[in-house]
Amino acid sequence: MAKCAICEKGAHFGNKVSHSNRKSNKMWRSNVKSVKVKVNGGTRKMYVCTSCLKSGLVERA
After folding, report:
1. DSSP-assigned letter for residue 40
2. How far apart are CA 50 and CA 15, in angstroms?
3. Residues 16-41: pLDDT tens digits?
4. Residue 19 belongs to a domain with what CATH number?
5. Cα separation of 56 and 14, whole Å?
6. Is 35 a domain residue?
7. Which residues form the domain of 47?
8. Is residue 16 domain-resident?
């Protein structure tokens, strides 16, 4: 699973609980996109979460 290159946000794990209180495994995936980013004057392809894109921590190429 991909992780954000800026904030290291990745997948989270836990339990899905049914109405009868039975537990099964669940995975929450973060919204990570593959984006071309300006880095040190050049462009690079990185995995970045949408919250980092929205906050302006990363400049798109």
Report:
1. T
2. 25
3. 999 999 999 999 999 999 999 999 98
4. 2.30.170.40
5. 30
6. yes
7. 12-55
8. yes
